[in-house]
Amino acid sequence: MDLNLPPKVTDRAFARLGEIGAGTDGKALRVAVEGGGCSGFQYEITLAEPEEGDLVLEGAGEKVVIDEVSLPFLTGATIDFTEELIGARFVIENPNASSSCGCGVSFSM
Q1: What does pTM read for this prediction?
Q2: Phi and psi of 15, rounded to 5°?
Q3: What is the extent of the structural domain holding 13?
Q4: pLDDT digits (tens, 9 = 90+) for 50-61
Q5: For residue 65, which of 33, 54, 88, 109 is within the disulfide window of CB 3.0 to 4.6 Å?
């Protein structure tokens, strides 16, 4: 696996950011990895302004940002948006995670 492969963002995720007006408000989808959760690490997904040092992924006039500390945990990951019977949410398909919990927010490496 290429350790320098940046995360990808699907067209569906960028489209959802456009629907909620994130870029219009000067916000980006911030994806961060923090210690905690039931599997050791957890994703924190928020709308926030880009900060210096962030990796900025752009598409369809929208932005997804990842801080320098979280980036190694998200190498080669895919950030997507899904709508299911249980609700709609941004999801992360992470090839670095050795396991994840049922909620899809917590993972281990």
Answers
A1: 0.86
A2: -60, -40
A3: 8-108
A4: 999 999 999 999
A5: 54
